[in-house]
Amino acid sequence: MQNGIQRFWILVQGEITADLKKPFFISAAMLQLLTIGMLCYLGNPNIQIKTWNSLFWIALIFSTFQTISRGFTGISRNRWIYLNQLASPFLIVMSKIAYHGLQMAIFSTLNLLIFSLLLGYPVQHSLVYMTALMLTGLGISTIFTMISAIAGKTHQPGVVAPVLSLPVILPMILVGMQASQKALQPILVSSVYKDLWLLAALNFLVLVLSGILFTPLWRD
Length: 220
What we know:
- The structure is a single chain.
- The longest helix has 31 residues, at 89-119.
- The protein has one domain.
- The chain has helices at 2-21, 24-43, 49-68, 77-86, 89-119, 126-151, 157-182, 192-219.
- The mean pLDDT is 82.
- Helix 6 runs antiparallel to helix 7.
- Helix content is 82%, strand content 0%.
- By secondary structure, the chain is an all-alpha fold.
- The protein contains 8 helices and no strands.
């Protein structure tokens, strides 16, 4: 058990080191978040609450897609062999999901900060909103990671990944947007907790499926 945890952290540290050596994708995502926030502010600084929430999610998804979805698409065959010797397929995919989930949490917080500074902070129930944001971000990063593993086995992963990813993440995004929209209202709707439980269930489902499906895919 302890050996597995150590290998897990070694894999996560390897992901962090690799991104620090080539920070282009992370820098590009941050720049896109700032650019979209500025464009929204310059276009209409006094936007409605529903529009604020919609633009927030649009900025987050499309700015982070390239960074999060490249999990396995850029791995060479030699790298695959090295990782296979270092840890089990389950630990490999879970370390990727954990790191991308951390990235998504950072990008989500940064996007919320940008929108709050430029367009105001209309959130009435911050804890509920942040919970919905983090659960949705984790689910999106998990789906993107698994899809990138599938796309990495094809000859054109850059084309396959977005085609497969966007339809799959739509249910997660719709539930997350619905929950976050309720957190913007002065009176908290009790049904928001059903949405949060649904998000948690969807996260559990995609995590389990990723752990199960990745092993045969990895050995292929």
